[in-house]
Write a structure and sequence with these properties.
Elements: H1 3-10, E1 12-13, H2 21-33, E2 39-40, H3 47-50, H4 52-64, H5 67-71, E3 83-87, H6 95-106, E4 125-129, E5 139-141, H7 144-152, E6 160-165, E7 172-173, E8 176-186, E9 192-202
Parallel strand pairs: 1-2
Antiparallel strand pairs: 3-6, 4-5, 4-6, 7-8, 8-9
Length: 223
């Protein structure tokens, strides 16, 4: 390894979790005192884009305040499936709006629904915890009573749950659901660099809405 490479690596700080405010203050202080900037693999206050609920709220705020989106009547649910956030620890859980929408779709009343009708025939919904990752805690339901029973069986301290309309006819690769992952670097001046080689992850079984195996729906390699 040449000395230039060694210097580059020495200025890159990798952590599996984010810093607190004091950590960022130390990085800022160091960067003001030296010519070579210390590069860190997290943005500060990352919760608004890296949690499921944070991403939904951020996108909703973006489209509400985007002039072009408002002029075209384009909303968050033209980009993502219909989603409700339910906090079991609050009196206003957000559950009633979801129940109303579920019943409307069950009656084939999709006038308000932005998700195409082909994804609504079975009225299937994805339930997932706000902060969990690696596919943990994800459940698939198409019965309202089952959804309510599942949610009310969770501890009040379990936080926010994401209820999202399931894409019932996804694009598949060789009969399996898949996702594509790539690496990107975004600098503090919002320059974006893309590492071209990526990879594709598939579910472990062929996709079918009638399968009792939840693994047909999930593509996380941890599973």
């Amino acid at each position: 390894m040449c000395s230039e490479d060694a210097i580059d690596l020495a200025n890159f700080l990798f952590r599996p979790v984010n810093f607190g405010p004091s950590g960022y203050s130390k990085i800022d202080t160091r960067n003001k005192c030296v010519d070579d900037l210390l590069v860190f693999n997290h943005f500060e206050v990352l919760r608004d884009i890296c949690t499921k609920s944070g991403l939904i709220c951020s996108l909703e705020h973006y489209y509400k305040h985007n002039k072009e989106a408002r002029a075209a009547n384009y909303t968050i649910f033209d980009t993502t499936p219909t989603t409700y956030l339910v906090n079991l620890g609050l009196s206003d859980t957000g559950l009633n709006p979801f129940i109303n929408r579920f019943k409307e779709i069950a009656k084939s009343n999709t006038r308000k629904e932005r998700t195409p009708m082909k994804h609504c025939h079975e009225n299937i919904w994805l339930i997932k915890p706000e902060n969990a990752n690696q596919g943990r805690g994800i459940e698939i339901f198409k019965n309202l009573k089952d959804i309510q029973q599942f949610l009310f069986s969770q501890p009040l301290t379990s936080g926010t749950w994401v209820l999202q309309k399931y894409i019932e006819k996804p694009l598949c690769y060789k009969m399996r659901k898949f996702d594509i992952r790539i690496w990107a670097l975004v600098t503090n001046s919002f320059e974006i660099y893309i590492y071209k080689p990526g990879y594709l992850r598939t579910s472990s079984s062929d996709y079918s809405l009638h399968s009792k195996d939840n693994y047909v729906h999930l593509t996380n390699q941890c599973l």
